[in-house]
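User: My instructor asked us to take a sequence, write out its structure as tokens, and then describe one feature of it. I'm not sure where to start. Here is the sequence I was given:
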Amino acid sequence: MVKVSIIVPIYNVESYVAMCLDSLVNQTFSDIEIICVNDGSTDESLNILEHYKKLDSRIKIVNKENGGLSSARNAGMKVAEGKYILFVDSDDWISTNAIEHLYANAENNNSDLVVFDFVSDDFAKKEKSVMTIMQYKDKYMNMPFNVDNMDSWAYKYIPVSTWSKLYRADLIKNKVLFFEDMIFEDLPFWAYVYSHATRITYLPIPFYYYRKNREGSIMMNKGRSLFDVIKAYSRVEDILKEAGKWEKCKPSVEILMVMDFLLKYNVMAPELKEEFFNKIKSLNKKIDTVIFDKSNFSKVEEACVKRFNLLNTVDYKTFCETPFEVKYE
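Assistant: Let's start with the prediction itself. The structure tokens for your sequence are:
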């Protein structure tokens, strides 16, 4: 059995995929397989993959019709043979010593999951920032944890991104798949993983480099698919309820949901905003601020909850005319 499977979904990334693959084939830890899922690319991506495969036998190419990121990740998991699985998006890259350290941490701690930091690299603005799990950085750095022994706020501090974790394969393989009928697939996937992992460890090193605001990225979407965020949070709630963890995670999930809904509303095409407003309003969901511990409730979060609660009581015109000065990404 290979020790680590690296799954790389690929779709029309001819300008970026070589940098990604260079970071993988040059890992200081050699017992890996690199599963490149070509999701129906129409540019030179496949030719680049085939070139790298000739140079490194650890590269496997899975060709499929275009089905989206979730479909590509699922296809990669089906053929993965490693004890652990790492997901790397094809426009990003990792440190060349990442697998060595992540594997050692997982083995030494018998971890189901290793969470690590990442660098958000905005090439357009020439800005970089290291993303961590903030106030939990020191508390849980050297101690395995899980949903039961973490406090109820932990959920909102750990990034939901699929690629910022190393997974024990038997935690996710043949047990949880990425939903293929929506974007924001990371949200329900993380809900399942967090609620089922018994030993999570944290390694406060930024091994992953996330390319932010790339032209053509899903995250730059301003269209109707942004409505999927409503479906995503509904599934998060269902998954956590089924696992018996909803009441523990509810405060964090609802804060994340409120901020995510407002962010998607803020960036979507103007002609879609009223429809999105009405979709959210039809949920008739009001956040009870009494449940929040004010010491864990930032001013931005407080403002967002008030804004979210406002839409339950006003029409769209009034909502638009009501000042909302908070800016966030």
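For the description part of your assignment, you could build on this observation: The CA atoms of residues 114 and 230 lie 28 Å apart. Try explaining in your own words what that tells you about the chain.
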